[in-house]
Amino acid sequence: MALFQTSSDNPAAQKSTALAVLSVAFVLVWLFIAAFPFLWTAWGSFKAEGDFFSRADWMNAITGPATTAQTGGAFTLDGYRGAWIEKEFWRAAMNTGIVTLCVTMISLTLGTLGGYALARSGFRYTFWILIAALVFRAMPHVTLVSGYLLPFFQLNIWGYLPTTIIVLVAINQPFTLWMLHSFFLSIPKDLDEAAMVDGCTRFQAFRLAIIPVMWPGVVTTGLFSFLLAYNDFTTTSMLLTETNATMIPKINSFLGSTQEEGKVMYAVAAVVSAIIPLFVLIMFFQRQIVSGLTAGAVKG
Amino acid sequence: MTHKEFMAFIWPSLLAMALFIAVPIVSVAYQSMFVEHEQIMIETETCGPFGCTPEVAVDQDAMRKVREDSPAGRFNGLDTYTNSSHLATDEITEIVATSENFGEIRDRIMNLPFYKALIFTLSYTFIVTPLVIVFGFIIAVVVNSIPSFLKGPVIFFSLLPMIVTPLVGSLVLFWMIDSRGVVGAFLQYLFADPSLSLKASPTLTWVTLFVYGVWHSAPFAFVVFYAGLQTVPSDTLESSMVDGANRWEQIRFVVMPYLLPLATFVALMQLMDNFRIFEPIIGFSASASATSLSYLIYTDLREAETPLFGSAAATSMLTIIGVIILLLPVLFRNAREFNRKA
User: Is the ipTM of this complex over 0.90?
Assistant: First the structure.
């Protein structure tokens, strides 16, 4: 891409040094804004409350005099110990693991079948299904939850992980359908049609010709299903009980006890614990996330 | 693909959406026309060493029976919609009739819970969305111009604010802007005002939430625009340079028109997401100065003793109507395009 590239043989494209310095400075400022809060909180989670929230001097959060005074070292794992063991954050982490894994698997299975059908059917109703999915995608989740609560109480299925998983799968479907639909559109029709000419049924064609080539799109969509389930607060906080809560509602319940000395650091430690998997996720799947974000856009 | 094959593939997906998205919307509409049962009172006598005193208490048995008979509550028609915690028609009429000037009308309407939430939700949606597009575009253009070995790390860290759970992201910022946190302390130093607190004033709370919104969503716009920039045709750019366009004119007359469809896409996604703003209000403990429609529903359902299903459902219906109004232009455009194609 030629825009802004420095090339010495083309004076019109040459960039002044001042502008280059300015660009780099701007990017550094943006990086600082984007990343510093997380680094700061991760660092602070190993300190005592008196340091991370210091009345005297913000430098305390770096040097850590209160932490040294309380625990003898410049760093402490007290926050993590309190959150994970005393407040049983491990249980929440396990629940999150179960919920996200199941939601991702089920969403992808349903979404792949549905997205394939939408991409290959030329009938008018596919358009209306996609439009309905778009409207559903826009519904604030809490409005849907207010529709679930009473029926779930009546049916006595409130407060169980499977209920929450199915609800999250359903909430996830509109997005999954849209994304996989546009992905399957990019796989040539000839592929499965050739298989059918060779005598396959539609299902066999899907299994033998489409499944082997669909993984890049499925992985990308799966990442976003994972993020939706992992990041959900509205649904999980309303549909799960105290004992089988996932991480995000659990963090929220920590906030209630912030007034007690030292307990804020439990929440800080829990927050940092919840960020780490996402950090790892971006590290490994940066390319897929970027391509997924732009998938809907490129189509227009 | 035949109708039968189509259904065979799509029915699980459709069933899930019908059961857990379409039916709940109907359920919300139904619930919104009911309110909680009135408390059935019973008079009992408690006798102690100093004689007997009559006491009025809720008759739990009778209440349980009534709740079992009609769990949704008693029929209330559309009254929940017009009561003081929703559209407040009576209050509005009264305010308009008795207020001196426009400012007073505005202030008094802002005290009604539904309008307070609605105004914040709309302000958030229509202030954050354009800012996200502008910032995302600027970041994309600048990142595109830096040496390429820096681009990978920049994108990596840029994704963080967007990927991280809204509640977690807002908590991280909230702790930093606390008057004992690093940003809070810095602001106090900057304005030489040791009592400065971003939490104290409603205006500053609003600004904080807007800043959070831009911080959270700008990466999304950035990534979309950045990907778009990679596909700007270089022929057009070069011919604009031959015609003497400077750097700004290239951006203004070549890049911007080219990226316009992407901006529409980002705007659509942002309108939908910003309209349901909810977690940051909890993360920033901002409910005293800023509430949103989603937050109202949440608090109704979280009511300690008995959740206010009717009230939550009425707010939900009004929110859904809001979403549909927001989406109407998009729906019309899509329908027109589809009809043109057909």
Answer: no
What is the DSSP secondary-structure string of B236-275? HHHHHHHTT--HHHHIIIIIHHHHHHHHHHHHHHHHHHHH
Interface list for B 89-118 with A (CB within 8 A):
none
Chain-chain contact of B20 with A134 (C-beta, under 8 angstroms): no
Nearby residues of B50 by Cβ (< 8 Å), 6 or more positions away: none
Structural domains of chain B in order of their starting residue, each with its CATH number = 36-75 (no CATH), 78-111 (no CATH), 113-341 (1.10.3720.10)
Least Cα distance to B162 among A81, A117, A237, A227 occurs for A227
Confidence of residue A10 (pLDDT cuts 50, 70, 90): very low
Task: Note whether B127 and B212 are within 8 A (CB).
Answer: no
Q: Does B25 touch chain A (CB under 8 A)?
A: yes
Return the DSSP state at A61: H
Verify that A164 and A292 share a domain, yes or no. yes
Statement: residue B106 has pLDDT above 90: no
Shortest Cα–Cα distance, B90 to chain A (Å): 26
Residue type, A45: S
Same domain, A50 and A89: no
Residue A256 exposure: Cα atoms within 13 Å on the Cβ side: 5
Write out the DSSP string of B89-123: HHHHHHHHHH-SSHHHHHHHHHTSHHHHHHHHHHH
Interface list for B 306-325 with A (CB within 8 A): 307, 309, 312-313, 316, 319-320, 323-324
Contact predicate A79/A266, CB 8 Å? yes
What are the residues whose beta carbons fall under 8 Å from the beta carbon of A69, sequence distance 6 or more?
none
Residue B310 CB coordination number (10 Å): 23
Out of A113, A136, A286, the one facing B10 most closely (by C-beta) is A113
Which residue is associated with the tokens 């849209």? Answer: A178
Q: Indicate the burial class of A116 (C-beta count within 10 angstroms; 0-12, 13-18, 19 or more).
A: buried
Tokens encoding A138? 């826009």
The SS3 of residue B46 is strand
Q: Structure tokens of B340? A: 């043109």
Contacts of B342 in chain A (CB under 8 A): 124
CATH number of the CATH domain containing A271: 1.10.3720.10
Mean per-residue pLDDT, A258-262: 60
Mean pLDDT of B242-247: 86
Name the domain boundary from A81, A114, A133.
Answer: A81
Kindly provide the residue ranges of all beta strands, DSSP E only, lying in chain B, ordered along the sequence: 34-35, 41-48, 51-58, 74-75
pTM score, whole prediction: 0.89
CB contact B335 to A (< 8 Å): yes
Residue pair A147/B310 in contact (Cβ under 8 Å)? The answer is no
